[in-house]
Specification:
- The structure is a single chain.
- With about 260 residues, the protein is of the alpha/beta class.
- The protein contains nine helices and eleven strands.
- The protein has helices at about 10-20, 35-40, 55-60, 65-70, 115-120, 125-135, 135-140, 195-205, 255-260, and strands at about 30, 75-80, 85-95, 105-110, 145-155, 160-170, 180-185, 210-215, 215-220, 225-235, 235-250.
- Strand 6 and strand 7 form a beta hairpin.
- The chain is elongated, with a radius of gyration of 21 Å.
- The mean pLDDT is about 90.
Length: about 260
């Protein structure tokens, strides 16, 4: 028998909470911050400074323990959603992972990213957001004029609780219509999932009810390529409205055939 991998503190705590509620056939159930506090004490953890980071980490970064994954029916997966201030819920949803297509053409874009920004970007997400911003990739992708309103926006959404939007843009089209554009950024190994897309769209619906939401996900690929997706929710599933791949290149490497075809 293979040796069972030891759980870290976050995994042990979320596993404990999960099995205190889970029953065969369950597809949704809630828990709250007080249960996290009680569970940490019962597991004799010296301290978990930010208990809200426990469900947050499994919503976006970390894999759930194998014991929990084993309860997932074929084609479904557990997600953790916010359910109000200090409240969360496990919910079974159809497995949805948006990955860049391998058969899409790559579009060359002259690289306008300042070298100083590249030198001091602290992580993949920060670097990706900067590349998208300085190269005006949202403008090119959506055929809008857009402006970055705020990045790493922490706010609250009714019935969800606290959320963080990687970057929020406002946009303008040729007819003068305004758009709100939440952008989520993912490094090469991170996956685009339903939780962040849902909360981004819900935020726009509540905060800007009279404006159209165009939710965007950006993901690093190999060879300095950025994949951009426009996403929407349909029947509680993520759907791709559009996808484009942009490669940042030196001015001398721009494909002259593309320029000639346009002319």
């Amino acid at each position: 028998m293979p040796k069972k991998k030891k759980l870290n503190r976050y995994q042990a705590l979320i596993e404990k909470i999960f099995f205190e509620h889970y029953q065969d056939g369950s597809d949704e159930f809630g828990f709250d911050r007080e249960e996290l506090e009680k569970g940490a004490v019962e597991l004799q953890f010296a301290s978990v400074k930010n208990l809200g980071d426990v469900p947050y980490s499994f919503r976006y970064r970390n894999k759930l323990p194998e014991s929990m994954l084993d309860t997932q029916p074929d084609g479904l997966e557990w997600i953790i959603e916010g359910a109000g201030k200090g409240k969360y819920k496990f919910r079974l949803v159809k497995k949805t992972r948006i990955k860049p297509r391998e058969d899409l053409i790559t579009i060359g874009i002259p690289d306008a990213t300042p070298e100083l920004i590249r030198a001091y970007a602290l992580d993949d997400e920060q670097a990706l957001l900067a590349i998208v911003r300085y190269n005006r990739l949202i403008d090119t992708f959506l055929a809008l004029t857009t402006y970055s309103l705020q990045n790493h926006l922490r706010t609250t959404v009714k019935d969800i609780g606290q959320i963080e939007i990687d970057e929020l843009y406002v946009g303008l089209d040729k007819r003068g219509c305004h758009y709100i554009i939440p952008v989520q950024a993912k490094g090469g190994k991170d996956q685009i999932g339903i939780v962040q897309t849902t909360q981004d769209i819900k935020y726009v619906e509540q905060k800007f009810p009279d404006m159209k939401c165009r939710a965007i996900a950006a993901q690093f690929m190999e060879e300095n390529i950025v994949a951009l997706f426009e996403l929407t929710l349909q029947d509680d599933e993520i759907k791709v409205v559009d996808e484009k791949h942009y490669k940042l290149v030196n001015k001398d490497d721009i494909n002259q055939d593309v320029i000639r075809d346009y002319r």
